[in-house]
Design brief:
Number of helices: 18
Protein name: hAT-like transposase RNase-H fold domain-containing protein
Main location: nucleus
Keywords: DNA-binding, Metal-binding, Nucleus, Zinc, Zinc-finger
Helix content: 55-70%
Radius of gyration: 27 Å
Oligomer: single chain
Distance between the termini: 44 Å
Pfam families: hAT-like_RNase-H
GO molecular function: DNA binding; zinc ion binding
Shape: globular
Strand content: 5-15%
Structural class: alpha/beta
Strand order of the largest sheet: 3-2-1-4-5
Largest sheet: 5 strands, mixed
Order of helices and strands: HEEEHEHEHHHHHHHHHHHHHHH
Length: 426
């Protein structure tokens, strides 16, 4: 507990230097204790431009767990850490209680301060959870089949004798020796992995059935066939979830691209000649359209701020995600919001002045930094004077310059990175 208190004080001190912090929160029920907990995690960029995250709260929320109770718990956490005026966004699952909680929080916060873009970016819906809801609709169509495969995996793993017998079947069929994967029922991606793995051992399960008279849950050929079909459909979802669920690297710039790929895959499967796949894809497509019917502004802005994508990503993806009229409207909205966001940051920086950072933490252009480091004398006040006087040429914002330059090709990224590393080394 002493170590905990020391580390807590140290973290609280470091958070004083953070301008903006984003929160994620989720609720979890302990199977053994039958108690519901809520976790709040803070995410921010430190002064060295490293992504940081810390669990700020892990508390029991007694029933009833409504929107007001969730909102109060988050506010208490923010107050405890002194970040109530620094919260930029809050990411939550798509539950009604969370919608209410965020609404309460927005109303309360906006009484004392202004949120970025009038609060349009404050409430972030968890993309991984939306994908989970879409996929669960599809998995319900083969719930019985999944139950049989899950029970088959459990049956084999329940005793050492059965495992040995199953391995003998695998070896006789000369299949690759892999362990059967158990799944977590609430995580569809683990169910997908269990199905994909079990399909490789389809013949081994059939052989095992002939040797074990008590094994009564072996799927029929038609059931294996349906499991194979749904796995082919869910592969795009699994890839997207795997990539955007990363926690050690930025992921928000990847969402738009992955959502568009999923939508395109569902559009293709919805026209499939196989009736089962066609109906399955159509049902999942309805859920995707429901949750991404409204433009996810943060997802679009993150893509625009990726130098390999910029506005081209939005202009490419939106016509594939929305109708022609809606796509045009949403593209205009993204441009409006990103300009508004830039102006807010520009005013903020002007008011507080440019921060003084160590050389390794400054992110000017490579030529400017090289010139600055090589010069013997710095005449900062003269440079400031020139900047004020030289107004003959119309100055454009950095955002306009950024958006009008061509996007970086992926093969150019290592070159640019290498240039920055050389400058830093100097």
């Amino acid at each position: 507990m002493k170590i905990y208190e020391i580390e807590k004080k140290r973290l609280k001190k470091s958070l004083e230097c953070v301008d903006k912090i984003s929160l994620t929160t989720d609720c979890w029920k302990s199977k053994t204790q039958k108690i519901e907990y809520m976790v709040v995690t803070g995410h921010w960029i430190d002064s060295c431009w490293n992504l940081q995250k810390r669990v700020l709260s892990f508390i029991n929320i007694p029933p009833p767990r409504g929107g007001l109770q969730i909102s109060d718990a988050i506010f208490k956490c923010m107050k405890e850490w002194g970040i109530e005026n620094k919260v930029f966004t809050i990411t939550v699952d798509n539950a009604l209680s969370n919608d209410l909680a965020i609404r309460y929080m927005k109303d309360t916060i906006q009484r004392s301060r202004t949120l970025a873009c009038e609060g349009n970016l404050f409430h972030v819906r968890c993309c991984a959870h939306i994908l989970n809801l879409c996929v669960q609709d599809g998995l319900r169509e083969i719930e019985g089949i999944i139950g049989n495969i899950r029970e088959s995996v459990e049956y084999v793993n329940r005793s050492e004798a059965r495992r040995v017998q199953f391995v003998e079947c695998v070896q006789q069929l000369q299949l690759k020796d892999e362990k059967l994967i158990r799944d977590c029922k609430t995580r569809w991606n683990s169910t997908f992995e269990m199905l994909s793995c079990a399909l490789k051992f389809k013949e081994a399960f059939n052989m095992f059935k002939e040797r074990d008279p008590f094994y009564g849950c072996c799927p029929q050929e038609e059931e294996w066939d349906k499991a194979q079909k749904i796995c082919s459909l869910l592969e795009a979802f699994w890839t997207a979830t795997h990539i955007i669920s990363g926690s050690e690297y930025p992921t928000s710039n990847l969402f738009l691209q992955k959502v568009q790929k999923i939508k395109s895959a569902l559009d293709i499967f919805a026209q499939h000649e196989d009736l089962f796949l066609k109906q399955l894809a159509s049902k999942m497509k309805e859920k995707v359209d429901k949750y991404w019917g409204d433009c996810n502004l943060l997802m679009a802005i993150a893509a625009v701020l990726d130098p390999t994508k910029k506005m081209l990503a939005v202009e490419f993806c939106f016509p594939k995600l929305y109708s022609e009229l809606d796509a045009s409207k949403h593209i205009s909205k993204v441009k409006e919001i990103i300009n508004s966001l830039y102006e807010e940051y520009a005013v903020e920086e002007t008011n507080k002045g440019a921060p003084h950072l160590p050389e390794s933490e400054s992110f000017g252009s490579s030529s400017a930094r090289r010139s600055h480091q090589n010069s013997m004398y710095n005449w900062d006040d003269f440079d400031e004077y020139c900047a004020k006087v030289e107004t003959s040429e119309t100055k454009r914002s950095e955002l306009v310059d950024y958006l009008e330059k061509g996007h970086l090709k992926k093969n150019e990224i290592p070159k640019i990175y290498f240039m920055f590393r050389m400058v830093e080394d100097e």
